[in-house]
Amino acid sequence: MPPTESQILTSFLLPPAPLPQIITLKRFTSLFPHALQSHPQIAHLYHELQHLRALDTDQVIENIAAEVRRGDRQRREVARARRRLTETGRDLGLGQGDENDGREIRMEMECISDPDDAGAHSSLAP
Question: Rounded CA gap, 100 and 98, in Å?
């Protein structure tokens, strides 16, 4: 089964682990010049970085959820438009005559088709 939009966005946009698992305070401290490694502000800076990173991660999680909701809404709108086009075709009696009937509706459906379905329609001809 293909990954969901949420899974894709999460894997690309969220950090793989919290800061302490990526870099410890000891390792972070070692990045500073030797003369400054004992300065108490380094620990404060590390904890501030950890806090800001957590806030950013929370914001990204909220944005992913909002994007998934927008995508779901867009898919529903496309489905409604497809149904309306199909119903319009039935109301006009298309698809009951020769092989060219309904071509315009199929073309419209192709134009508004879900980009995730790209290639699902092999041709516009019946």
Answer: 6
- SS3 of the chain: CCCCHHHHHHHHHCCCCCHHHHCCHHHHHHCCCHHHCCCCHHHHHHHHHHHHHHHHHHHHHHHHHHHHHHHHHHHHHHHHHHHHHHHHHHHCCCCCCCCCCCHHHHHHHHHCCCHHHCCCCCCCCC
The string of pLDDT tens digits covering residues 27-66 is 999 999 999 999 999 999 999 999 999 999 999 999 999 9
Residue type, 10: T
pTM: 0.60
95 has a pLDDT exceeding 60: no
